[in-house]
Amino acid sequence: MNNAKLFIISAPSGCGKGTLIEMLKKEYDIFLSVSCTTRAPRNGEKDKINYIFLSPELFEETVKNDGFLEHASFSGASYGTPKAPVDESIAAGRDVLLEIEPQGAFQVKKKRPDAVMLFILPPSLASLDRRLHRRAETSGESEQQIQKRLATARADIERAFEYDYVMINGELDKAFDDLKKIITLAKNGGEGLEAFSAENMKDKIQEVLDLC
Ligand code: 5GP
Questions:
Q1: CATH code of the domain occupying 6-33+95-210
Q2: Which of 209, 27, 28 is nearest to 122 (CA)?
Q3: Where are the domains of the chain?
Protein backbone atom coordinates (compact mmCIF):
# COMPACT_ATOMS: atom_id res chain seq x y z
CA MET A 1 0.00 0.00 0.00
CA ASN A 2 1.25 3.49 -0.79
CA ASN A 3 1.42 5.32 2.55
CA ALA A 4 3.61 8.20 1.38
CA LYS A 5 2.97 11.29 3.49
CA LEU A 6 3.01 14.97 2.76
CA PHE A 7 4.76 16.98 5.49
CA ILE A 8 4.49 20.76 5.71
CA ILE A 9 7.01 22.62 7.81
CA SER A 10 6.68 26.32 8.58
CA ALA A 11 9.06 28.41 10.60
CA PRO A 12 9.89 32.10 10.56
CA SER A 13 12.82 32.83 8.25
CA GLY A 14 16.03 33.02 10.26
CA CYS A 15 14.80 30.34 12.65
CA GLY A 16 17.48 27.85 11.60
CA LYS A 17 15.10 25.36 9.99
CA GLY A 18 17.40 25.05 6.94
CA THR A 19 20.07 23.27 9.01
CA LEU A 20 17.51 20.90 10.52
CA ILE A 21 16.06 20.03 7.12
CA GLU A 22 19.55 19.40 5.66
CA MET A 23 20.24 17.01 8.54
CA LEU A 24 16.92 15.26 8.01
CA LYS A 25 17.59 14.73 4.30
CA LYS A 26 20.80 12.86 5.12
CA GLU A 27 19.04 10.34 7.36
CA TYR A 28 15.60 10.05 5.88
CA ASP A 29 14.44 9.36 2.35
CA ILE A 30 12.15 12.30 1.65
CA PHE A 31 11.57 14.49 -1.39
CA LEU A 32 12.22 18.12 -0.55
CA SER A 33 10.10 20.26 -2.85
CA VAL A 34 11.96 23.12 -4.57
CA SER A 35 9.75 26.20 -4.62
CA CYS A 36 9.44 28.89 -7.26
CA THR A 37 9.99 32.46 -6.18
CA THR A 38 10.16 35.91 -7.71
CA ARG A 39 12.64 37.16 -5.10
CA ALA A 40 16.30 37.65 -6.06
CA PRO A 41 18.79 34.91 -5.16
CA ARG A 42 20.81 35.53 -1.98
CA ASN A 43 24.56 35.01 -1.84
CA GLY A 44 25.37 31.38 -2.63
CA GLU A 45 21.83 30.41 -3.64
CA LYS A 46 21.57 28.39 -6.84
CA ASP A 47 18.73 28.28 -9.35
CA LYS A 48 16.79 24.96 -9.24
CA ILE A 49 18.62 23.91 -6.07
CA ASN A 50 17.49 26.43 -3.45
CA TYR A 51 14.63 27.86 -5.46
CA ILE A 52 13.49 28.06 -9.05
CA PHE A 53 13.91 31.80 -9.59
CA LEU A 54 11.16 33.11 -11.88
CA SER A 55 10.25 36.50 -13.30
CA PRO A 56 6.90 37.86 -12.05
CA GLU A 57 5.49 37.22 -15.57
CA LEU A 58 6.51 33.55 -15.62
CA PHE A 59 5.23 33.12 -12.08
CA GLU A 60 1.81 34.52 -13.09
CA GLU A 61 1.73 32.26 -16.14
CA THR A 62 2.33 29.23 -13.92
CA VAL A 63 -0.52 30.36 -11.64
CA LYS A 64 -2.83 30.65 -14.67
CA ASN A 65 -1.80 27.19 -15.89
CA ASP A 66 -2.64 25.73 -12.46
CA GLY A 67 0.97 24.67 -12.02
CA PHE A 68 1.15 25.35 -8.28
CA LEU A 69 -0.17 23.28 -5.40
CA GLU A 70 -0.25 26.56 -3.47
CA HIS A 71 1.18 30.02 -3.84
CA ALA A 72 1.44 33.11 -1.66
CA SER A 73 2.93 36.58 -1.40
CA PHE A 74 5.49 37.03 1.32
CA SER A 75 7.72 40.02 2.10
CA GLY A 76 7.00 41.60 -1.28
CA ALA A 77 7.75 38.49 -3.38
CA SER A 78 5.70 35.54 -4.69
CA TYR A 79 6.38 31.95 -3.68
CA GLY A 80 4.79 28.77 -5.01
CA THR A 81 5.08 24.98 -4.76
CA PRO A 82 5.22 23.28 -8.18
CA LYS A 83 2.42 20.73 -8.19
CA ALA A 84 3.72 17.98 -10.53
CA PRO A 85 6.86 16.90 -8.59
CA VAL A 86 4.84 16.59 -5.37
CA ASP A 87 2.17 14.42 -7.03
CA GLU A 88 4.80 12.28 -8.75
CA SER A 89 6.71 11.66 -5.54
CA ILE A 90 3.59 10.72 -3.57
CA ALA A 91 2.45 8.42 -6.41
CA ALA A 92 5.88 6.73 -6.31
CA GLY A 93 5.48 6.13 -2.56
CA ARG A 94 8.07 8.68 -1.41
CA ASP A 95 7.32 11.13 1.40
CA VAL A 96 7.36 14.82 0.54
CA LEU A 97 8.47 17.80 2.59
CA LEU A 98 7.25 21.33 1.86
CA GLU A 99 9.01 24.14 3.65
CA ILE A 100 6.52 26.96 3.22
CA GLU A 101 4.95 29.83 5.16
CA PRO A 102 1.49 29.58 6.82
CA GLN A 103 -0.73 31.07 4.06
CA GLY A 104 0.51 28.38 1.66
CA ALA A 105 0.52 25.71 4.36
CA PHE A 106 -3.21 26.14 5.03
CA GLN A 107 -4.00 26.11 1.29
CA VAL A 108 -2.27 22.72 1.05
CA LYS A 109 -4.02 21.37 4.16
CA LYS A 110 -7.37 22.28 2.60
CA LYS A 111 -6.54 20.34 -0.57
CA ARG A 112 -4.75 17.47 1.20
CA PRO A 113 -6.31 17.09 4.67
CA ASP A 114 -4.04 14.16 5.53
CA ALA A 115 -0.94 16.38 5.21
CA VAL A 116 0.97 16.75 8.50
CA MET A 117 1.61 20.35 9.54
CA LEU A 118 4.59 21.14 11.77
CA PHE A 119 5.56 24.58 13.05
CA ILE A 120 9.13 25.18 14.25
CA LEU A 121 9.40 27.93 16.84
CA PRO A 122 12.52 29.97 17.54
CA PRO A 123 13.46 29.82 21.25
CA SER A 124 12.60 33.53 21.39
CA LEU A 125 12.02 36.45 19.06
CA ALA A 126 15.25 37.98 20.43
CA SER A 127 17.21 35.01 19.04
CA LEU A 128 15.47 35.45 15.70
CA ASP A 129 16.39 39.14 15.73
CA ARG A 130 20.07 38.20 16.28
CA ARG A 131 20.06 35.60 13.49
CA LEU A 132 18.40 37.96 11.01
CA HIS A 133 20.94 40.71 11.76
CA ARG A 134 23.82 38.26 11.36
CA ARG A 135 22.45 37.04 8.04
CA ALA A 136 21.96 40.63 6.82
CA GLU A 137 25.72 41.16 7.12
CA THR A 138 26.17 38.93 4.05
CA SER A 139 22.81 39.36 2.31
CA GLY A 140 22.91 43.15 2.49
CA GLU A 141 19.32 43.39 3.77
CA SER A 142 18.46 46.79 5.25
CA GLU A 143 17.28 47.39 8.82
CA GLN A 144 13.84 48.14 7.41
CA GLN A 145 13.73 44.77 5.63
CA ILE A 146 14.84 43.02 8.83
CA GLN A 147 12.10 44.77 10.83
CA LYS A 148 9.57 43.69 8.19
CA ARG A 149 10.74 40.07 8.50
CA LEU A 150 10.40 40.28 12.29
CA ALA A 151 6.84 41.62 12.03
CA THR A 152 6.02 38.81 9.57
CA ALA A 153 7.62 36.29 11.94
CA ARG A 154 5.31 37.42 14.71
CA ALA A 155 2.25 37.10 12.48
CA ASP A 156 3.41 33.64 11.37
CA ILE A 157 3.95 32.48 14.97
CA GLU A 158 0.39 33.53 15.79
CA ARG A 159 -0.76 30.84 13.36
CA ALA A 160 1.29 28.11 15.08
CA PHE A 161 -1.73 27.41 17.33
CA GLU A 162 -3.51 25.92 14.30
CA TYR A 163 -0.75 23.45 13.29
CA ASP A 164 -0.81 19.72 14.06
CA TYR A 165 2.56 19.78 15.83
CA VAL A 166 4.85 22.45 17.23
CA MET A 167 8.50 22.11 18.27
CA ILE A 168 11.26 24.50 19.35
CA ASN A 169 14.56 24.92 17.52
CA GLY A 170 16.76 25.60 20.54
CA GLU A 171 19.66 23.23 21.09
CA LEU A 172 20.41 21.62 17.68
CA ASP A 173 20.77 17.93 18.66
CA LYS A 174 17.60 18.00 20.74
CA ALA A 175 15.71 19.82 17.97
CA PHE A 176 16.89 17.26 15.41
CA ASP A 177 15.78 14.36 17.63
CA ASP A 178 12.38 16.01 18.03
CA LEU A 179 12.05 16.53 14.29
CA LYS A 180 12.91 12.89 13.51
CA LYS A 181 10.47 11.69 16.14
CA ILE A 182 7.66 13.84 14.75
CA ILE A 183 8.29 12.73 11.15
CA THR A 184 8.53 9.05 12.05
CA LEU A 185 5.57 8.86 14.44
CA ALA A 186 3.31 11.16 12.41
CA LYS A 187 3.74 8.78 9.50
CA ASN A 188 2.24 6.05 11.66
CA GLY A 189 -0.76 8.03 12.85
CA GLY A 190 0.83 10.31 15.42
CA GLU A 191 0.64 8.10 18.52
CA GLY A 192 3.26 9.24 21.06
CA LEU A 193 3.35 12.81 19.79
CA GLU A 194 0.90 14.31 22.28
CA ALA A 195 3.64 16.46 23.85
CA PHE A 196 4.14 18.18 20.48
CA SER A 197 0.48 18.87 19.74
CA ALA A 198 -0.34 22.55 19.25
CA GLU A 199 -2.75 22.25 22.19
CA ASN A 200 0.04 21.06 24.52
CA MET A 201 2.49 23.60 23.12
CA LYS A 202 0.15 26.59 23.39
CA ASP A 203 1.90 28.07 26.45
CA LYS A 204 5.27 27.88 24.68
CA ILE A 205 3.85 29.59 21.59
CA GLN A 206 2.38 32.31 23.77
CA GLU A 207 5.67 32.68 25.66
CA VAL A 208 7.56 33.38 22.43
CA LEU A 209 4.88 35.89 21.39
CA ASP A 210 4.90 37.62 24.79
CA LEU A 211 8.64 38.13 24.68
CA CYS A 212 8.56 40.54 21.79
P1 5GP B 1 13.01 33.12 2.16
O2 5GP B 1 12.82 34.28 1.24
O3 5GP B 1 13.59 33.52 3.50
O4 5GP B 1 13.77 31.98 1.51
O5 5GP B 1 11.58 32.53 2.48
C6 5GP B 1 10.58 33.34 2.97
C7 5GP B 1 9.39 32.50 3.37
O8 5GP B 1 8.79 31.91 2.23
C9 5GP B 1 9.73 31.36 4.32
O10 5GP B 1 8.82 31.41 5.41
C11 5GP B 1 9.52 30.12 3.48
O12 5GP B 1 9.06 29.05 4.28
C13 5GP B 1 8.45 30.58 2.54
N14 5GP B 1 8.38 29.80 1.30
C15 5GP B 1 9.38 29.24 0.59
N16 5GP B 1 8.90 28.59 -0.47
C17 5GP B 1 7.55 28.72 -0.44
C18 5GP B 1 6.48 28.25 -1.27
O19 5GP B 1 6.64 27.55 -2.24
N20 5GP B 1 5.23 28.62 -0.91
C21 5GP B 1 4.97 29.39 0.18
N22 5GP B 1 3.71 29.68 0.45
N23 5GP B 1 5.94 29.84 0.99
C24 5GP B 1 7.22 29.51 0.68
A1: 3.40.50.300
A2: 209
A3: 6-33+95-210
